[in-house]
Structure formats: structure tokens, C-alpha cells
Amino acid sequence: MANLAKKELIMREMEHIPEPLFNEILDFIYFLKTKALKEKLETAIASESSLKKNWLREEEDNAWQDL
């Protein structure tokens, strides 16, 4: 299912949700956004530590010295 179709489905479902649940839904959306951001950050940190091994090599310095 395409992203647009999923978004439209979510919007249609929201029309049938009782208004008192809106705060819970909004909290869940914020939770999912925070979770995704945290996972991205963890991936970036993990990548940095593995790539750092190459960055600190003399061969790497030589390869970039003319730029």
C-alpha cells in the first residue's frame, strides 16, 4: 500500500475516533516520531565508531590532502 493511501486511510479512520481519544493518539504519534529519531541517532553513532577506524589512518589523510 502506497504511503499516500495509508495516510488517507489513517485520516478516514480519524473521522470515526471519539474526540476524547485525540490526546492519546497525539501522544502516540509523538512517541513514534521520537522513537524514529532515536533509532536514526543510534545508527549514526554506531556508524561513526566503525568508520572512525578508517578516518584515523594515514592512508586516509594522504588521500584527502590535495582537496
Please characterize this protein's 3D structure.
The chain is an all-alpha fold and 67 residues long. It has one domain (20-67). It has three helices and no strands. The chain has helices spanning 3-14, 22-55, 58-64.
Please write out the topology:
Blueprint: H1 3-14, H2 22-55, H3 58-64
Which properties best describe this structure?
67 residues, mainly alpha, 3 helices
Summarize the structure.
The chain has helices spanning 3-14, 22-55, 58-64. With 67 residues, it is mainly alpha-helical.
**Spans with pLDDT under 50 lasting ≥5 residues?**
none
Shape: elongated
Output the structural class.
mainly alpha
* Number of extended strands: 0
H and E string: HHH
Count helical runs: 3
> How much is the average pLDDT?
86
Summarize the main sheet. none
Q: Termini, distance in Å?
A: 45 Å
Number of domains: 1
